Amino acid sequence: MNIGFGTFFNKAIIFGVVAAVINAILFFVGNNANGGLMQVLRPGQTEAEPLSLIFVIALSIIPCIGAGLLYFLLQRTGRASLIFTIIAIALFIFFFFSAQGAAQSTLTNWVLQIMHLVVGIAAVEAIAQSIRS
Question: N or C: which end of the chain has fewer CB within 10 A?
Fold first, then answer.
């Protein structure tokens, strides 16, 4: 049974916004606990920059939409759940550990790791809710 793109997109937006709100709270908690803005080293940069709220919100919503689009496209394979699970685990591991290199302090590292968990859980739950509906 193929599920329409609108179902995936709606769930992805809902869970992406939920992840963005949770990550925004983590952003403010992390900044307050850090005594200032958390610093991250972005790819290609040589100096750390403050982590921005817009960046956190965008990177909370976009992966959820991407997960919905990926699963929608994989439906045609007949093994969508298996392929999606493998890709999701691989991406989660890659991005989970890449955050360690970006963080400029232990606190920032922990906050980034938790943010990655939040987005990963939200993206997978968006797909699960779409399949169940």
Answer: N
Identity at 54, one-letter amino acid code: I
Full pLDDT tens readout for the chain, 133 residues: 678 888 889 999 999 999 999 999 999 999 999 888 899 988 788 898 999 999 999 999 999 999 999 999 999 888 888 999 999 889 888 887 777 778 888 899 999 999 999 999 999 999 988 888 7
Q: Which two tokens stand for residue 114?
A: 């938790």
Helix (H) or strand (E) holding 127: helix 106-132
Contact present, 42 and 49 (Cβ < 8 Å): yes
Query: For residues 90-122, b (16+ Cβ closer than 10 Å) or e, as one string?
Result: ebbeeeeeebeebbbeeebbebbeebbebbbeb
CA–CA gap between residue 95 and residue 67 (Å, rounded): 14
Determine if the pTM surpasses 0.70.
yes
The sign of the CA dihedral 123, 128, 121, 96 is negative
Amino acid at 24: A
Percent helix / strand / coil, the chain, rounded to 5:
80, 5, 15
